[in-house]
Predict the structure.
Amino acid sequence: MKASKTIPRIVLTVFLLLNGASGFQGKGVQQLKTKLIESDFEKERIEQIFSDPRFKIYHDLPSIWSRAKKIDYIERGFCSEKSIEDGLKFFISNSKSMSKAWKEYEVGGEYITALLKMESDLGRNMGERTVLNSLASNWFYIDGSTEKGKNKERIFYEEIVELLKMEGVLYKDDSDIFSLEGSYGGAFGWPQSIPTSYKNLGVDFDMDGDIDIIDPNDPDDSIGFIANYLVKHGFKEDKFNAIQDYNPNDGEKFPKAIILYADKLREKFIKSITPYLSRITF
């Protein structure tokens, strides 16, 4: 008797959970569509995008947020000898762009390398989630009942709007917004930029007529982007705060790891060139 009563309850619970999730998603999608149409996007285009089978909500987002808060980058080996050696090779192979970043922005290449290593493992891992889906998922799951929540909601909505405006500028396939992939937070490319940062701080650092932070074989514009970002956020006056602004969600853990990495990279670079300096005669 107990078993027969328990089974229907389980079935009912699962049914409610599934329907709750789908109801939540549908409501959120409709709200977003209405809001975007009210922001002067063409209704036909919005309907087409959000009816595309590739659009979806990432329901694992809350659990990812929870795990991300517990990450200690230094304990996980971000500043290990192997990691620093990897950064040194990148730093040396891109010395021309690093030198240019110093001359134009006065940002040391060790900090740029540290951020690129942290954000995308030097271009090896730029994320595999659809950026539009990630931005929409964040917008849906943020609790907008508090002032802080409302502000985050506004920020993610602005990122969605900016992404939609970038057709023909950013997407690999100019007509396909779903071609742009990135992180669970909606960031993309070597430096893991969000759309508004790309728009406001992106630079054509290699002067080829294009601001490309996505090409896995070309880090130049990403080096310029980070240098520009840090300077615009007060790097010359306060390195710690400027780096923290790059990823404010992780408190002090993020800037501490970046600065430690940069210090170790600088030290390793100096050691690597010291034998050659001793051979130079003036």
